[in-house]
Amino acid sequence: TWGVCAFSINQHSCICGSFGVERGMSDQDIKTRTEDSVTGQRYQACTCECPKIGNTTAPCYKDSSIECEINKFDDMMAVLARPGANAACVHVIAMDEHFTLFDRMWCIAEIVEADMLGLEQHVVTHSREAIEQGCSKLWCLDLTNCHASRKEDCDHLLKKVGSLPGGRRHYNGLLRRIALGWMTGTMRLVVTGRAARTMSR
Q1: Chain centre to alpha carbon of residue 90
Q2: What are phi and psi of 127, to 5 degrees?
Q3: pTM of the model
Q4: Least packed by Cβ within 10 Å: which of 11, 12, 47, 54?
């Protein structure tokens, strides 16, 4: 079973009418979200009249909207991971070339949730060269550097992680273990050396 949010969630019920631009964003971040990188043309926001239901839109249960479609990923993962439901259920973490996955709050939220559920996690990377180029980033992964289209999503996860045993320190360590733990001893030495040189400059 694969969960793909673009197919599983009705985007018109939540985010189609905006670009997720928030106060404090850099001009480059705003441009990335609002313009086509090839043509330079500005995207057109959807003008549908579908009601937008956010994380806290009433009615709520435990401060979370019952009807919202974008706050149920942890419930979905719990169903997939329940005993007897999927005997071979694993969490596959597919890395992009520049490891922007680790900048995205919802991707991090899935990694945290899978760890809480005790799911087996498998990492798929782009290449050894990508690892060597991104080594300093991988060595310094931190939840507080992640972002989402909406600030409340970041606040929600950071609050949740802060209430768990070990808090942010534990999960920062988890992210680094996932990013680096699968490497061979030789590759880890290469990455560690390059990260040390980069951070000392």
Answers
A1: 17
A2: -170, 165
A3: 0.67
A4: 47
